Amino acid sequence: MMHCLWKTVFVNVFSFFFFSLIQAQSSDAISGKVISEGSEPLEAVAVVLLSVKDSTYVDYTVTDVHGDFKITDAQKGDYILNISSLGYISLYKNISYTGETLDFGNLTLVEDTYELEGVTLTAVVPVQIKQDTIAFSTNSFKVDPDDNLEELLNKIPGLEIDSDGKVNAQGNEVTKIMIDGKEFFGGDPSIVLKNLSADAIANVEIIDKKSDESELTGVADGNKEVVINFTLKESKKNNGFGKVSAGAGLDNRYFGNLNYNKFTSKTQFSIIGKTNNINITGSNIQDFLKNADGVDGDGDDEEEQNTAQKTKSLSGFLNTGVAGVNVGHEFKEKKSLNGDYFYNHSKNDGTSVSKRITFSNANNFDYVAENEYINTKDNHNVNLDYKNKSNPNNSLIVKGQLISDDIKSYSNRMGRYFKEEELSTKNDNLSNVDRDRKRANLGINFYQKLRKKGRSLATGLKTSFNSSAMKNDQNTLITRRVNTPKESIKELNTIRDQKLNTSIVNFNFKYTEPLGGNHYMKIESYMSNKVDRENVYQNKTTISGNNKEEILEYDYDHNENNYQTRLAHSYTTRKINTYTAMELQDVIRSFGVVNETAAVTDRLFVNPMATVQYIPKRGQKYRFNYKKNIRRPRPIESSTVVNDLNPFSIRKGNPDLVAEKMDALTLSAIIHDFKSSFSFNTRLQYQYSKDAIIKSVDVDDDYIRTLSYENNGVKRRLNATLGFSQRIKSLGIRYSFRNRNFFNANNAIINFQLNEVTSKDFLFSGTLENNNKSLVDIKAGATYSVNNTSFSIERDLDRKYTKQQYFSMLDCDLGKKVNFNTQFDYFIYTDNAFASNENIPLWNATVSYAFSKQKSHVLKLLFIDLLDKNIDIYRRSTTNYFEETTSESLGRYFIVSYMHKLNSRPRKG
Prior knowledge:
909 residues; mainly beta; Immunoglobulin-like; Maltoporin, Chain A; 2 domains; 26-stranded antiparallel β-barrel; 8-stranded mixed beta sheet
């Protein structure tokens, strides 16, 4: 079997280099100089070599600051040379290239005086950079008929999708995804990427978007977000498109998908539907994982963990049902209303085994738990978005959202505590949780330009409400001093009814005054009120000969008022944007049990901040940001009541906590060189916190863990990412490398002793792939990640665990109708804490057959996890314990599917 595995790897890697070598080209050049009608050199003009046969892209370059271009290593043959730039009439020349240098001299572009509304004619260039936008043409990437946008993004350099569904572009998290500049299903990346067809997209734009205020006034305010905009192909506009697919296979595995869209210049309409039992989600996967644990406290969701440790895979067996509709209409230019409704049903069940090593000074022990779980969730989500930017002097933006969740969780956990390898205590817990959660929020923002150029004001109001009713019914059987004469058994029946209500009101006001010479003064004011209310009734009955009943009942309020006044200065030019400010912040908190004396705190802070962005030329961007933040104690950290729902994990608040003061520094750079196709991005973020809110953990002889919080010392975090890629035209390949480093150091108190916890993470990955993917898409690479965690009071328990992944992928067309895809991954897990090593090979393959020229009917055979390695591993390191969880996953299955594209006939004319 292993011989077959390595043979598969060898075939994929050999194919990669074989196809790379046959794409190697000769070394002469096609050159020229592009000028305007006034004989001025034109920079960043796209020069594309097209095939005479079907006008497909062959090679490209762009002109430099002198208007010069050069295409090297072109093969001999007949081509169309296309020269185009926004605002100019495209120039086409038929050429016959013999292999010798071909110099066109001066080529003049004529300015386009005719504007066609809604139509832009440009050359198909793999990558274009505008002022704040990097655009990738999808024609440069191999897209299969049934690929969704998720598969498309995974092929674009500099873009990656985390296992929790978050999208990162050039090292920055993508906050929103749009279709043709309009929000689609609330901009939720997981919904958009998993449900819209990739073959409907012409370009993928990564936009460093200014704030709505900056877009109106033209004055930088230091607030930017990274968004992705998918532009539709012209053939998909004004013409309904989508697809229907279904499949069934062994072990009763099935799936069914429906997606229909119609986009016109004024209206967009989409419906999606999905059902399956093959672990494919259609909603926000992170929300699902937050409800995947059973007993409160054992999961320790509050533990501080870095990004690498938080990553959690979807294991067990998942059934999903999804339905959604999105409607958007533009009443007139820049005035639109967008609304959507989304329903998601999920049921996840499975088993897992967790191993934990816990230390508490001299009282170290091991813990092993077997868990069976069933989690179901029904989610309803409504979004409304109204934008009116039709008036050049003001704009109004209104956003609203309604969310309703019905969550049911069942867990049967059998925990075992070991002291010096001897079984000491058993903890068997059966838990049923019903939770009804409703959330609503409304945001209104108004921006107004005043008469004097650069003078403006802005106001905003945002309100939100969160209501949660949870009933937890659990039975815990505790056996202490197992198999000894002093063995004791205690049974606890606990019923807890808990209601949580949170309301937040935020109001802001901003005024901008021009000072002349691109300088501006800003006065900003922010006011917020947050009220948390908790109502708890808990009945705990101890069964040990005679029943003992304990009742806990209370109402708890936490009220917080936050006032911020900011005086700022900004400077804006084409190349440089700066923003500096000094902020005065007043935080007033009042909290405690109703009808008892409340604890009151009032703190005043001074917060400096600054942002500098420098864009020296097209394709280069450098950004510096500094800000002092205040992290107020969360209600759970300062609560005056004790949560003992889990008898082995008790949580206490500390009402004497003060706010944590954090200095945050961020540096980033993005570079793309058109000539060499070299892309580079790096991001460095450093955080230094004083009066850090840390955990205080006390573990007694009965393994009861009591968690509280204190202000103690400092907390330091360093997060650095680096990525770069480049295509090698002579070999026809592209290489890319990515590096991510994370350092975290903070204190914790373990059984009244100060413990410094230091965590270091390192990740390195590299990939090789071919450039021309019109027929074949080949990729191979490796990822290596390592975590080192050390403790000042337990040096002998320092932990190191690694994960290695080696992968190869081949996607090729075997003729015009047959497509073959195979992927092979090999994972190696090592962990010195548990002396556990796991090698997991995963092999998937698909074969598809298209019935028509437009590939509108596709029959596919899927082979998933051919080697049947149904296992998933999740690890984490916390303040005083290590944990490794092994879960069962779906395993091997085969499916035969059919896909039909809706309205796939080519448009006439």
